[in-house]
Specification:
Blueprint lengths: L30 H12 L4 E5 L9 E6 L2 E7 L5 E5 L14 E2 L5 E2 L6 E2 L5 E3 L18 E7 L2 E5 L7 H9 L11 E10 L3 H8 L5 H4 L1 H6 L6 E2 L12 E7 L23 H4 L1 E7 L3 E5 L4 E10 L2 E10 L1 H4 L7 H24 L15 H13 L4
Antiparallel strand pairs: 1-10, 2-3, 2-5, 3-4, 4-9, 6-7, 7-8, 9-10, 11-17, 12-13, 13-14, 14-15, 15-16, 16-17
Length: 384
């Protein structure tokens, strides 16, 4: 991946990263650390989990696994998207096993046949008529907060967390001028990476590695180009995201093999936008990469301390997709190569961090955003 040159924004941390050391290797392979990260990051943050058009009709659903939690996202009969813990209120049995599905008429527990509506209400509970102090309306599915922005579905398992816009409004305001909700999925790829999820965020947050690892990317957008956005919410408070832009070299206009494309720019693109790619990491696990002619996102989910699941999706203007001969492979195949180059080097770093000799390193001048993310992690884990 890539992120702008640190020379453009080193002053934002007053040069602090130039004297700092990286976290120790145990932060990337310790099981206890990962359990804390689930609790303090993945169960307390707004997570991008899918698109509204994935569940267009009543009963359409998707499920996802985050640590030990299985989560159900489903379109209700009233047209609203909702999210629930994917467990029965009777004995905690997992309800839905499929990753996606259409028009689920009712959600039936496979154990004792308790059933629920797509709105989460308890519809049937055999042999509970004689129970004392039992009301069906009190035993619907456990809800999870769900909100939308840009056509995306966002969930938060923390009942006390601030609203989505309060948490990420400073990020959203950078991209509200683009009709992101109108975009449609053009390609999706999944990866299984033998590396800790934080290594993937760190890798995305710098382009120090781009010249040796990504020659095709570095040719189109040189690693020293671009600038970073202000990722402090009020000049002092730490925002849960960071990023900025990288610029095309010469007259290149798209991240493709040739550097050119027949696809028109997305609506809302200014002349400056057309010369840039915007890369933002939204903590803990979303990589948001807005190109002049498409949006690419990655979602990184930890599976074990040393294994992560990655979803990579490409979104295009539907009018462009409807044109004869639409073929996004000029960029999706290039990004597949770039992704695999990243995963390979992250896996090699993961292996090296188990060495008894490695107790942490130093940040280069190009890694201020890596330092920023590591500080965020250490502070929320109470380790710094």
């Amino acid at each position: 991946m890539s992120s702008p040159s640190a020379t453009k924004y080193a002053s934002r941390d007053n040069g602090e990263h130039l004297a700092a050391k990286t976290p120790p290797g145990s932060l990337y392979w310790d099981e206890g650390i990962l359990r804390q990260e689930y609790e303090r990051f993945f169960f307390r943050s707004w997570l991008n989990v899918g698109r509204e058009e994935q569940i267009p009709d009543a009963g359409d659903f998707l499920t996802l696994q985050i640590g030990d939690e299985s989560i159900l996202v489903i379109r209700g009969t009233d047209g609203s998207a909702r999210s629930f813990y994917n467990i029965c209120r009777h004995r905690g049995t997992r309800l839905v096993w499929e990753e996606t599905g259409k028009k689920l008429r009712s959600i039936v527990c496979p154990y004792h046949a308790w059933s629920y509506t797509a709105n989460g209400a308890l519809a049937g509970a055999p042999h509970t008529e004689e129970l004392k102090d039992f009301r069906r309306e009190d035993y619907g599915l456990h809800p999870i907060r769900l909100e939308t922005w840009g056509g995306f579905l966002w969930i938060n398992l923390d009942e006390k967390a601030p609203p989505l816009n309060e948490e990420l409004g400073a990020f959203f305001s950078r991209f509200d001028r683009f009709p992101l909700s109108e975009l449609r999925l053009g390609s999706r790829k999944s990866y299984d990476v033998q590396a800790n999820w934080k290594l993937l965020v760190e890798n995305y947050s710098e382009c120090y590695h781009c010249a040796p690892i990504h020659p095709d990317l570095n040719r189109v957008t040189p690693y020293f180009s671009g600038e970073v956005g202000d990722y402090f919410t009020n000049g002092a408070e730490r925002a849960p995201f960071s990023g900025g832009s990288m610029n095309f070299a010469g007259d290149y206009a798209s991240m493709t093999w040739s550097g050119y494309t027949n696809r028109p720019p997305l609506k809302g693109m200014t002349e400056k936008d057309r010369n840039s790619i915007y890369y933002y990491a939204i903590f803990p696990n979303l990589f948001f990469s807005l190109h002049p002619d498409f949006l690419m996102i990655h979602r990184a989910y930890p599976v074990t301390p040393t294994r992560s699941k990655i979803e990579c999706e490409f979104y295009f203007d539907p009018e462009t997709m409807a044109q004869p001969g639409f073929d996004p492979s000029d960029t999706t195949e290039l990004w597949d190569l770039i992704n695999r180059q990243d995963w390979n080097v992250c896996e090699r770093a993961q292996q090296g961090m188990r060495s008894r000799a490695w107790k942490g390193g130093r940040y280069s001048s190009q890694e201020v955003q890596v330092h920023d993310f590591d500080k965020y992690v250490m502070e929320r884990l109470g380790l710094k």
